[in-house]
Amino acid sequence: MAQDLPPGPIIIADWHLCAESKDFFNRILQKKKRRQFGLLESPMMAPHVAVETVQYKVFLSGKSGVGKTCLAARLAGLSTPSMHYETTGIETIVLYWPVKLRENGRVLFFRLQLWDCGENALRRFDHLLPSCKEQVDAVLFLFSFTDRTSFDDLPNQIARWSGPSDQLVKMVVGTKFDLFMHSDVTQREVRQFQETQGLPVLRTGGEVSDGLGDVAPFLNCLAERLWHQDCMAATLPSGPTHYREGALI
């Protein structure tokens, strides 16, 4: 996986490489591979280690075939599908990612529930999109570097999730970046889009190893923006309402 965004000021970007993070990351690993968590499962730390958990709902938006299911599998450490198939309804994946805040050294477990819904299913069944939008915290807008129409469709995708009271974290993800010889989208066009829309653009593609380094930049970038959004919401009268150690904040 690849990304072109500089590290943010909130999260220590290379913390997963530090020795002090080993115990935390071991909780999301099993036999040196990413552990798969069910809806009711969570990493278990020693009783004397107090780690806060914050949970977020992340929706993957994009045309059919851009790689939504593949991206979700990559981020969760699952095997990516060998063949493309259209997601027939809503599929969810839960992953945990520990981060350390730069300002005060607090360690947080981010619980990310990734929602993937087939584009054709969204068109056919009116009730699916409202379910996907309910209590959503972030949207990843995907396009494929090998599919020009998916890039041109981004404004429509973004408009579907925009509103006057919109407080969503929004990021754009370009998939199949490794197939640059077959790219239908130029880097100049991506930069122009990023400047016009004011949204970060990440790039993914290629093989993913069993290590954490492949997904760390992506997940840290997403966690950075989610936490910043929470900090901004905390200044509002209503405040944020994300679960943290059994309490609403």
TrEMBL record:
One of its GO terms (molecular function) is GTPase activity. PROSITE patterns: RAB. It is found in: Cytoplasm, Cytoskeleton, Cilium basal body. Pfam families: Ras (PF00071). One of its GO terms (biological process) is cell projection organization. Signal peptide: none annotated. Keywords: Cell projection, Cilium, Cilium biogenesis/degradation, Cytoplasm, Cytoskeleton, Exocytosis, GTP-binding, Nucleotide-binding, Protein transport, Transport. InterPro entries: P-loop_NTPase (IPR027417), RSG1 (IPR039677), Small_GTPase (IPR001806). Belongs to the small GTPase superfamily. Rab family. This is Ciliogenesis and planar polarity effector 2. It comes from Gadus morhua (Atlantic cod). The gene is cplane2.
